What does this fold into?
Amino acid sequence: MTMHGAFDTVTVFNRCVDPATRCDRWVASVVRSCAWQGHVGRAVDGTSALADGGVTLLIGEPELCWQALNYMPPNEWRVADDATRAANFTMQPGDVIARGDWVGDSRSVAALKAALGADAFTVRVVDDRLQPQRRGRHLKVVGV
It folds into this structure.
């Protein structure tokens, strides 16, 4: 059974440190059958109001099982070797998620975010609801 309304494809750009150069490197993974929900909020401060927007991404457990890749908790993914990282993905604050299939795109993640605008966001919060005792297990990712 799939999540209702889960028809979006996203590319997750996981940040890791290249041990040889000690620079950030991005590993891209495509995840299908997600639910992408944009939301707009506002903050009122006495005499002014500020617009605030963000994105919530839901990935159900069956969708995680049907992928060619597997989800790994961030602490395991960070210490994995390159081959393991290529076959798996994680969700952690600071990662970037773009709507659509962007693997093989030569632009940097910053350029990708600038080009896509509302179709890319930086992960702020990951709610891992994959615990075995839960019904409707899924990942909930919120970002701006």
The CA atoms of residues 123 and 143 lie 4 Å apart. The longest helix spans residues 109-116.
